[in-house]
Amino acid sequence: MQRGGSREPVFNLPGSLVFVISLLIAVHLVRDVWLTADVDAHVLRALSFVPGRFSFALNPDAVAGELTRLVNAGNRNAVLSAQFFLGDGHADMWSMFTYSMLHGDWTHLGMNVLWLAAFGAPVALRFGTVRTLAFFLVTAAAGAGAHYAAHWLDLTPVVGASASVSGLMAAALRFIFQPGAPLGKALYEPLPPELSVRVPATSLRVALRDPRVLQFSALWFVINLLIGLFAVPLGISDAGVAWEAHAGGFVAGFLLFAFFDPAPAKAESRSSFEC
After folding, report:
1. CA angle, residues 224, 228, 233, in degrees to nearest 5
2. Domains of the chain, start order
3. Which of 85, 93, 242, 252 is 20 to 30 A from 155 in CA distance terms?
């Protein structure tokens, strides 16, 4: 006879998130503790996303013009940094994904890990390991694409998993308010955690008319815009915040959810629009 009741594990994150979080921490630990500044700079150049490198392959004259502008501005450090990160001018397509593995400092990493655990867990439980990892990479690429669209000549490296975290957050909005889901109306018989995240999701059309989804999304966009515009002036961050990448990951996560969702889609009806 077993003594006492069963105990819940202290950390109950899906294996896919444990893997991602462990990888993020390990990468930053290696960079922070074991790599010299010179070696770390080359790692950053190889793995970070630099928009100007992609533009150089398409329009080298425009990138050369940007370098000339920096020279004329008289900021020698900015010129040297731009030349270093331009490197040989190769786009390095993998950087659209690998930039999400790097972080500026432990605070940056800690914030992403915190939000990843909070909003990524229900999505990872629903998607499973392969879909979750693929979703993480796809939303990272979407974030890089959005940042590129806004800063196509910029030679400043972009790092961080925020675009993927934003994508997972948006994906959670597609089902997390449904009846029986973690933030939805309670059912007469509550579902166990592993089933509460597998309730039928709303269609895209229904989700776009759900006030809870719209309010959360609007608040998220406002906060990200304010952080992007005022983080440096207010001393919150020493580096600029790539809020466009966050937005790109969020939009991609919201729109692409159905392509990754293994659960059956909810049939639409007039009652689906009730809140």
Report:
1. 135
2. 15-273 (1.20.1540.10)
3. 252
Tell me the per-residue pLDDT of 48-65, one tens digit each, with 9 for 90 and over.
999 999 999 899 999 999
* Sequence-separated (6 or more) residues with CB below 8 Å from residue 152: 51, 52, 54, 55
| Packed helices 60-73 and 51-58: angle between N→C axes, nearest 10 degrees | 130
Dist CA 87 CA 82 (whole Å):
9
Burial class (CB in 10 A: 0-12, 13-18, 19+), 205: exposed
Residue 265, phi then psi, degrees to nearest 5: -70, 150
> Distances in Å between the alpha carbon of 5 and those of 8, 77, 159, 191, 232?
10, 62, 45, 20, 51
**Considering the entire predicted model, what is its pTM?**
0.88
| CB-side neighbour CA atoms (13 Å) of 212 | 15
Report whether 181 contacts 212 (CB < 8 A): no
Choice among 73-87, 117-131, 238-252 with the minimum mean pLDDT: 238-252
pLDDT digit string (tens) for 95-131?
999 999 999 999 999 999 999 999 999 999 999 999 9
Residue 105 backbone phi and psi in degrees, to 5: -160, 180
Residues above pLDDT 70, as percent of the chain: 84
Kindly report which listed range (78-87, 158-167, 233-242) carries the lowest average pLDDT score.
Answer: 233-242
Question: What value, to the nearest 5°, has the Cα angle with vertex 40 and ends 39 and 46?
Answer: 95
Q: Is 235 left (phi over 0), alpha (psi -120 to 50) or beta?
A: left
